[in-house]
């Protein structure tokens, strides 16, 4: 059962739409963190800025949430869930344009943000700023 769910969810992460309007992407990092503070802050920000979108607001993210991949109660391991979201997140960032807002305080070096999203942000020529700051300057905060 969980193997079937993994295969279906992985296909969703690879194929469902992740596109967003320019200057609308909001990211957060909660992997390996003791709280969901960054996610809560991101959701609160989007609530007050309806022109902004998180991955959960795309067809891909909404389908993954519907499939239960927003918690470890779905029957998949945390690593399997992270693998699926990593694929979706990478595609999400690769299609983004303009300024990105990121709630990534204390982002762990093993997090999806640090391993997938930040490198994709830096490689995306259509993104120049993160939180209004030059994306390369912003990224220096995460150099170990």
Outline the structure in words:
Strand 2 (98-103), helix 5 (112-123) and strand 3 (127-130) form a beta-alpha-beta unit. The longest helix is centred in the middle third of the chain and has 17 residues, at 78-94. The radius of gyration is 14 Å and the shape is globular. Helix 1 runs antiparallel to helix 3 (59-66). 48% of the residues lie in helices and 10% in strands. It has helices at 2-15, 37-48, 59-66, 78-94, 112-123, 135-140; strands at 26-28, 98-103, 127-130, 133-134. It is built from six helices and four strands. The mean pLDDT is 92. The protein has one domain. A four-stranded mixed β-sheet has the order 1-2-3-4. With 144 residues, the chain is α/β, with parallel strands linked by helices.
The major sheet is characterized as:
4 strands, mixed
- Level of helix content? 40-55%
Q: What's the number of domains?
A: 1
Number of helices: 6
Query: How much of the sequence is in beta strands?
Result: 5-15%
Strand neighbour order, sheet with most strands? 1-2-3-4
Helix/strand order: HEHHHEHEEH
Q: Output the structural class.
A: alpha/beta
3D shape: globular
Q: Average the pLDDT over all residues and give the rounded result.
A: 92
Spans of at least 5 consecutive residues whose pLDDT stays below 50 are: none
Report how far the terminal alpha carbons are from each other.
40 Å
- Rg of Cα set: 14 Å
- Tell how many strands the DSSP assignment holds: 4
Key terms:
single chain, 144 residues, alpha/beta, 4-stranded mixed β-sheet, 6 helices, globular
């Amino acid at each position: 059962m969980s193997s079937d769910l993994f295969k279906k969810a992985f296909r969703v992460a690879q194929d469902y739409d992740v596109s967003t309007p320019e200057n609308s992407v909001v990211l957060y990092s909660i992997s390996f963190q003791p709280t969901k503070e960054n996610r809560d802050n991101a959701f609160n920000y989007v609530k007050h800025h309806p022109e902004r979108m998180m991955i959960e607001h795309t067809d891909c993210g909404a389908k993954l949430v519907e499939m239960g991949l927003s918690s470890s109660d779905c029957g998949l391991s945390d690593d399997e869930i992270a693998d699926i979201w990593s694929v979706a997140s990478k595609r999400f960032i690769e299609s983004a344009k303009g300024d990105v807002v990121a709630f990534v305080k204390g982002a762990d070096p093993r997090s999806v943000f640090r391993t997938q999203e930040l490198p994709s942000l830096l490689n995306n020529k259509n993104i120049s700023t993160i939180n209004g700051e030059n994306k390369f300057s912003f990224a220096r905060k995460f150099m170990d």
